[in-house]
Design brief:
This protein is mostly helical and 98 residues long. It is 51% helix and 0% strand. The chain contains four helices and no strands. The longest helix is centred in the first third of the chain and has 25 residues. The chain is elongated.
Length: 98
Amino acid sequence: VGGARLKEAININTSLSSLKTVIEAIGSGAGHVPYRSSKLTWLLKDCIGGNARVAVMAHVNPAESHHFETLSTLRFVSMVKTVKTRSSKNERLKGEDE
């Protein structure tokens, strides 16, 4: 892998690393959550840190040549699975404009 593909892979890994840091901060109840560490975490801020339910899907490849990527993905999903978020039903108050 080289050139543009290498640069893209580096950017993806950096964004995923930032996402992991944000999810760990939310899970630990940290006072500061570093959403601004990447564009991905900034865009997902309301989804992962707001009043929302979160679902994580992972794509893994059973081929032997993708062994390390599959293990890395499964470790990431296992870590994300341990994080508990709080969501509540949004209700309109009487008299609110629609």
